[in-house]
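User: For a benchmark we're assembling, each entry needs the component sequences followed by a predicted structure for the full assembly. Here are entry 17's components. Please fill in the structure.
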Amino acid sequence: MERIFYLDNAATTKLFDEVKERASKFLCEDFFNPSAVYKQSVDVKREVENARGFLLDCLGASHDDKLIFTGSATEANNTVIFSQRNFAGKRYLFGEGEHPSVKECAKQLEMKGYKVEFIPLDKSGRVDEEKFKQMLGSDVAFVSVQHISNETGAVNNIKKLVTLAKRANKDVKFHSDGVQAFMKFPIDVTDLGVDYYTISAHKIGGMKGVGALYVKKGTKVNTLIFGGGQENGLRSGTENVFGIASFAYAAEKMRKEQKQNFEKVKKMREELLLAFKENGIEYVIHGESGVPHTMNIMLEKSIRGETLVHALEKRGVLLSTGSACSATKHFNSTLEAMGVPNSEILSSVRISISPYMDFDAILIAKIVKEEIDKLKG
Amino acid sequence: MEKLILIRYGEIFLKGKNRCFFENLLKSNIKNAIADFGAEVYKIPGRMVVSGYREEDEKRIETLLLDQAGIYSISPAVMIETDNEKIIQEAINLVSGEVGTFKVITNRADKSFFPNSMEFSRIVGGRILEKNHDLTVDVNHPEMLVSIDIRENGKTMIFTKTLMGIGGMPVSSAGKGLLLLSGGIDSPVAGYMMAKRGTKLYALHFHSFPYTSELARLKVEELASKIARYNAGDLEIYMCSMTHMQEAINKFANEAYNITLLRRAMFTIAERLCKEKGFQMIITGESLGQVASQTIESMSVVGSVVKDIQIMRPLVAFDKQDTIDIARKINTFDISIKPYEDCCTVFVPDNPVTRPKKANVEREEAKLDFAKIVDEAYSTIEKVVIRAR
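Assistant: Structure for entry 17:
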């Protein structure tokens, strides 16, 4: 069978085999609804609570804080943003490079007449801190800035942004979409100072269909989905127990292997870039490297990124033209915000590396070179 | 570089010759509370240190320490070799990403360290300003203190944060108490108040399965996991079935006396358990006049079944709102208000007697084989140990 080099791990990751095995008891054996009143169900509920506690630990949060399980990180982001709708006349700030699940919500607020402003990015792909300072004021009620860019891997200094925002208005609520950051390095939401933080299971080797929203103790959050009152009335719908368990189990594995993973990915990235160079590929990376896991890269200016992605998919090298959730859109707004020229945006691709996937830098670079040469004719 | 947590005492500091006793208790409580993390705990003059844990566990350990009665405050710190440049670099690392005003304070236990404390603080402050343009110095009202503690053993401790604990006295310094733990708002608060004053808590919970559900038990376990945080990391709960007792009372006695009789049975069982296990007091969440069973007459007639053990009612003069405020602080409120039946809410009479007379109560009690049913309930007791969460 042809080898697959999956280089799109920012889009999703493969469910860990051991996680699948461990959590599978919740599909057939312990399939009970955690909200029912008999012992079998209460035992399942206990497992859900254990998963919640463990994930709060992984976030550096206290067990007194809330963690609401949702159907996706998108839902978690929607929940936060649409909880902020009672600040008439106040301003709402969003990073220009946010994931569509944040940015589209911001646009909805804007359409409903709220004062929404987008914080420009600097060339590195991070939120421009100087411009952010200028935008702040006592009338800023809400800020949402992603921890790590899903497009470039740039890391925002969330702790600093939170401090700046809270100095301008101590009541401001700060949300960070941490989907791309969770489990790449230790996260401490208490130290970051955020009020809300979003995470997702399928980016760390868990199941698709489960996200979670961290909410600091005492911070308000509104209900988006009404019904049976699960998740303390904050998110109705029968819990996805298998997914939730897979989330915690995957986090457990990732936490144990976090340090070595980071080093491994760093090395993999270096090897790949070196192999590109050795094959005569004159690449340009957009933005400064934040985490080594994700990079936006132009491999050949004269070839559209989308064309290259399709050419490579036939050879088993899978990468993306950008966030899978916005890959169908014409332009990459993050790169635009960073000031990357349109011609380069069109020729760019996103490579996102996982320490758990098949990888051979030399072979990948060779395939890329061959496909580029073919396309150039 | 080694990560550690520095612990300062509260009231223990006022103790004289017996201070060592309290320090040792606190140390042993801390060890138990953080037993899951493989950390070591040791005393240094006037303080205590936790070290040797994994970095990712630091936050959990901090939370658990902050809930130990007897701890005044803690500071997560780093310990490095005493070397001027290394100290400066570490201080710069610690404040990276910080915004606002700061001040550096140096303490030199090692007087051979050069330069002197004032001068070194000035140098470190200057170097921090060079690297972090979001910080400015304010020596009078700084938002952040960078503390540098140069010790005599060639090591230096640096920290920037101080987190406040709950104060009080180390658990187990003031006896062992049996907390009557329902699923309500009051009893967890009563337990917390006593633990904070040094009582080691054990809990007795009454259930009436199948009239109460497994969910009610889960609720009690959740409450216990919160109380355990203030009880040196765990709480032993004795679960006792009152089903037959409640059925008998309901069948034979005048309905108005249901709750009074039930509570007399509970206190009888509690005293027996105290004697068997060596607990010195029964702790309840009763508050004067709050409900029919908490009038002075009810408390007297119920309390009178306990002959040899102290009954502590730390909330007796509390308004409900005062109790709720503490319940929120100790994170039990949201659990307590979950709507599952507990054994006090099944078989509730429409018109309970509010001023029961002892003679009438004894007459009602005589209608059933009280002693035998108490024995039977006592024999159902099972112990569960809940760890802090």
